[in-house]
Write a structure and sequence with these properties.
There is one protein chain. The protein is α/β, with parallel strands linked by helices and 340 residues long. The protein contains 15 helices and 11 strands. The protein has a 4-stranded parallel sheet, sandwiched between helices. The relative contact order is 0.11. The structure holds iron/sulfur cluster. Iron/sulfur cluster binds next to helix 3, helix 4 and helix 14.
Length: 340
């Protein structure tokens, strides 16, 4: 038995769990191909222009799986991951959208997980995920979930080390662990916090390999995944805001924390055109970046974003940070000389 998982949206958060969980139950997991121009175009053709890019990409991945002959698609409806902390409406309604716009012959497995509702626990969501596959033994499901958590924890541990999601996913499902060494004190480098949702920055086609580009330009890149819950909460406090949307952790939480982190020289945010929650959060981040005296560059992406303009803006921003760092260093040397 095969189940297809689209390589988009919550894939970057939960795939290691799902992979280990289904495989432990003897279900083969088939992943859609890496994002291509064709996948983006297939997904975009199904919805109105104003739909955010990650949703268009997700729909393209559903089509990609169906084209590969996979006729069971897994698409849970993840409403809230903590009581009264909700995902954005597009993620919450994702299965409804898929069912209504991808009109082909397939089975859509669409369990609901909602921590704000009684009876919609994660355990129940898992059970509802496998009942359509004919698996009804709750003990077996529980055992598979334990395997899922083991893999998921390994994945999250690697994210904390600053390893990119794609690499961390591949290591975690093989049961391997990797580290990365960053030296924030290296004077020849700048330290940039990259603030965005995992599906915007870890998808190399959508992000136009922004992480590799920044590293080539001489930057150490820091991600939201490296922070723990207390640090996110500190971030909200720094921005004088509270948490409402689940996806605010990796946006306002991370931005607020890094803005007040002395090692960080600047922040780059990447948001998708058509994203309501991000547009509100960005406005606050921009305001507070001035208060914390941290340069902030916001890049908005959609399916028409050109790579040349994207690179130019990254280069201009990193050049400006390198110059500021040099000036600060020179001032420091002159002050020391004046003292002696
Ligand atoms: S948070 Fe924004 S980018 Fe992400 S799915 Fe929702 S609307 Fe789209």
């Amino acid at each position: 038995m095969k189940i297809g998982i689209p390589r988009g949206l919550t894939y970057y958060t939960y795939y290691p769990f799902w992979h280990a969980f289904f495989e432990a139950l003897g279900v083969e997991v088939v992943l859609s191909d890496k994002t291509t121009k064709q996948i983006v175009s297939d997904g975009s053709a199904l919805v109105v222009t104003e739909t955010c890019l990650p949703v268009k990409v997700f729909l393209g991945h559903v089509q990609n799986l169906l084209d590969k002959g996979i006729d069971i698609i897994y698409c849970p409806s993840i409403q809230s991951i903590e009581p009264k902390i909700y995902n954005c409406s597009k993620i919450r309604g994702l299965p409804d959208l898929v069912r209504n716009v991808v009109r082909r012959n397939y089975l859509l497995i669409e369990p609901t997980f909602d921590m704000s509702e009684k009876g919609q626990t994660f355990e129940e969501c898992l059970y509802q995920s496998v009942v359509p596959l004919g698996i009804k033994d709750r003990k077996k499901v529980k055992k598979a979930a334990d395997k899922g958590w083991e893999t998921q924890h390994l994945y999250e541990k690697m994210l904390k080390y600053g390893i990119e999601a794609q690499k961390a996913i591949s290591c975690a499902i093989q049961g391997k662990e990797e580290f990365i060494q960053k030296n924030p004190l290296d004077e020849n480098k700048i330290n940039i916090a990259l603030i965005s949702h995992g599906y915007n920055i870890y998808d190399e086609h959508i992000s136009m390999k922004v992480i590799q580009k920044l590293r080539k330009m001489g930057a150490n890149v820091y991600f939201a995944g490296e922070l723990n819950k207390e640090e996110y909460m500190q971030g909200f406090e720094n921005l004088n805001t509270t948490l409402y949307w689940a996806n605010e952790y990796e946006m306002s939480g991370a931005a607020g924390y890094y803005m007040n982190d002395a090692k960080i020289d600047g922040l780059i945010t990447i948001t998708s055109f058509g994203c309501g929650p991000d547009s509100i959060m960005i406005e606050r981040m921009t305001r507070y970046s001035k208060q914390y005296k941290k340069p902030l560059l916001n890049l908005t992406i959609d399916e028409h974003t050109g790579e040349a303009g994207f690179i130019t803006r990254l280069e201009a921003f990193t050049d400006m940070i390198f110059r500021t760092k040099r000036v600060k260093k020179l001032k420091g040397i002159k002050q020391k000389e004046a003292v002696h």
